[in-house]
Amino acid sequence: MYKKNCRSLRLGLISFGRSQRDCTIRSISQFGAALDVREAQNIPEEFALTVLPDGDRRRCAVVWRKDKRIAVALY
User: Tens of pLDDT along 4-29?
Assistant: First the structure.
């Protein structure tokens, strides 16, 4: 899917339970991503990330959070 690190900004959709949040994907690779969100503290430890407009959907686990940015491991 992602062979090398992609640093161009892309739109994403974070999904958990019945909730969804928009995000900006700052960078993404085969193993992880850096995401900008409005309120990082309201995002759970695990969620699904959909890369728009591709529709690629991956499960994520939060590695760290700082202000409005979160880093996730993809699996």
Answer: 455 578 999 999 999 999 999 999 99
Give DSSP secondary structure letters for the chain.
---S-B-S-EEEEEEETTEEEEEEEEEE-SSEEEEE-S-GGGS-SEEEEEEETTTEEEEEEEEEEETTEEEEEE-
Question: Is the peptide bond preceding residue 44 cis, with omega within 30 degrees of 0?
Answer: no
Q: How many residues does the chain have?
A: 75
Cβ atoms of 59 and 48 closer than 8 Å: yes
The whole model's pTM is what? 0.86
